[in-house]
Design a protein that fits this description.
single chain; 61 residues; 1 helix; 18% helix; rod-shaped
Length: 61
């Protein structure tokens, strides 16, 4: 039976090995925290595509 050694007192090499074992797989989940954008804030990248100039008939009188 191996003697217990706290993680902080392990060598850097052993710490890296243990971290690599713990870090294995997220099963397809992205661990990055994300938040939704504020719908009331102005976003210059958002363009209105619902209005098409080609489909609107022009009437001159």
């Amino acid at each position: 039976m191996e003697k217990f050694i706290p993680f902080e007192k392990l060598s850097k090499k052993k710490q890296r090995e243990l971290n690599a074992i713990r870090r294995k797989d997220w099963n397809g989940i992205n661990p990055v925290t994300r938040k939704s954008e504020n719908p009331k804030a102005y976003n210059r990248k958002r363009h209105r595509t619902d209005f098409d100039f080609d489909s609107v008939p022009l009437c001159f009188s």
